[in-house]
Amino acid sequence: MINPRVLAEDPELVKTHLRRRHADESVISTVDEIVELQTTRKTHVLERDDLRATRNSSSKQIGALFKAGKGAEAGEMKAAVTAGNDRIKVLEAELDVIEARMHDLAMHLPNLLHDTVPAGKTEDDNPVERTWGDIPTFDFTPQAHVEVGAKLGILDLERSTKLTGARFAILRGMGARMERALINFFLDLHTGEHGHTEVMVPYMVHAHVAEGTGQLPKFADDMFKLAGKVNGEDAYLIPTAEIPVTNIHREEILDIDKLPIKFACFTPCFRSEAGSAGRDVRGIIRQHQFHKVEMVWLTTPERAEADHHQMVDHAETALKRLGIPYRVVRHCGGEVSFAAHKCFDLEAWLPSQDNYREISSVSWFTDFQSRRMKMRFRPAPVEGKKQKPRLVHTLNGSGLAVGRTMVAILENYQQADGSVIIPEALRPYMGGIERLVPPAE
RNA sequence: GGAGUCGUGACCGAGUGGCCGAAGGUGCCGGAUUGCUAAUCCGGUGUAGUGCAAGCUACCGAGGGUUCGAAUCCCUCCGACUCCGCCA
């Protein structure tokens, strides 16, 4: 959620940011509605609090009058307080409506953008920051991962349709092994060398938890909602570990000495892919279920920008170790996701597409998520004085998407005979084998 | 699923319907004392809204209700724990 103070004090600034995101005018106009509601709310609150103050002091007097045996006077005051209570009830009923509307509108407003977010509307407008690695050259026509995987007998996209239809896959033999190897490789890298704490978390979350990170209320269609309630509340399958992991410390005041808290987490991810019908239908690039190792950091506003760059670097390290050529792009205004302030994507080279495809997205959310989650930290004392809690900054980034990494390996390391060389860094995780070879016909 | 106990501040833990935003303790911060450490003593120490400020208002798992007045009484829900049953 955007800081309500900014909304109240500089609504035009907020609108400017919304325009940079190419938001609809209908969204932009809600800024004015929120500001109006804030004003109305304030007069209501002032009146209500005033009445409550009167009630509190009257109640004390009534008690004293009773003790003094002045029942008649007490009775008169009681009537006055009751009248005041009626007015309070009216005001509170109106406040409920005002606040619900205000909250609903505010929850649908995306985060403000960082100054360095470039103009642009689509991914074609994302400027390239840097590229790494040599694009492989082939003396044969490189195959798509679907063909490479099928020939190796490790990827079965036909039988999986018998189970759950399109956008699911069955990995078999060394395919399943490579999936597991990549997960372990990523986790070992991020825990052993990059200082993350590994966590395992629930794969279904309550609705209010998904509100904390910003997937709800706006993007319910992108998630799989469970038909039954879970412990009394609507729940969703997680589309990313970001949701459960970022929410771990919600509603807490964290010790600044513990920041940044750096989590690495492996989870399956479930996405409905509503609205992407027809896109990437072939292969395992876009699945309803996929695996991902995610990095989630809770940090201070002062550190956040530098931490963001470091997280990008950690994700790049994973790709470098695997020898996958990639580039880093900066999201333009139209591409920065709802909750994000600034975002870099890592895109891996895919020979079959003759292009780079997203394999990691690393975002900085400022206090947008932590305001929703009420997640704060206590700054160090200044001149012996305890400081007020402040909202933490949250970051997250894929490190990496496992299925897409496998796609990149199969395509970039494929050989003319249909075999695939296994990147050296991955070999210890695959029983030391150096190459996947198609079975004899 | 059955039976029962319980949810209070960063943490532990008191709390008879008004004098409770809440005793006491721990932790933390400052000060005093002390060769160092340890110990002791004094003071301070929740969050949020509003206001120049004094102050006022709200929050004792969540939401309703009773009452002039609720941490305290009633209802519903959520959560934790113990025992029994079932079970990967």
Briefly say what this structure is.
This protein has helices at residues 4-9, 11-20, 25-28, 30-67, 71-107, 145-152, 159-164, 174-193, 207-213, 242-246, 301-322, 368-373, 402-412; strands at residues 128-132, 155-156, 170-171, 197-199, 204-206, 235-237, 253-255, 261-270, 289-299, 326-330, 342-350, 355-364, 376-378, 390-391, 393-401, 420-421, 435-436. The chain is an alpha+beta fold and 441 residues long. The chain is elongated.
Shape: elongated
Supply the helix-strand structural class.
alpha+beta
According to CATH, the homologous superfamily of the largest domain is: Bira Bifunctional Protein, Domain 2
Count of discrete structural domains: 2
Largest sheet: 8 strands, mixed
Distinctive features:
441 residues, alpha+beta, Helix Hairpins, BirA Bifunctional Protein, domain 2, 8-stranded mixed β-sheet, 3-stranded mixed β-sheet, 41% helix, 19% strand, RNA-binding
Question: What does this 3D model show about the protein?
Answer:
The protein is an alpha+beta fold and 441 residues long. The chain folds into 2 domains: 4-107, Orthogonal Bundle (Helix Hairpins), CATH 1.10.287; 123-436, Bira Bifunctional Protein, Domain 2 (BirA Bifunctional Protein, domain 2, 2-Layer Sandwich). The protein is 41% helix and 19% strand. The protein is built from 13 helices and 17 strands. The strands form 5 sheets. It has an 8-stranded mixed β-sheet with strand order 1-10-11-12-15-9-8-4. A 3-stranded mixed β-sheet has the order 7-13-14, with no helix packed on it. A two-stranded antiparallel sheet has the order 2-3. Helix 4 (30-67) packs antiparallel against helix 5 (71-107), helix 6 packs across helix 13 and helix 8 (174-193) packs across helix 13 (402-412). It is elongated and about 105 Å long. The termini are far apart. The model has no long low-confidence stretch (mean pLDDT 91). The structure holds one RNA strand of 88 nucleotides.
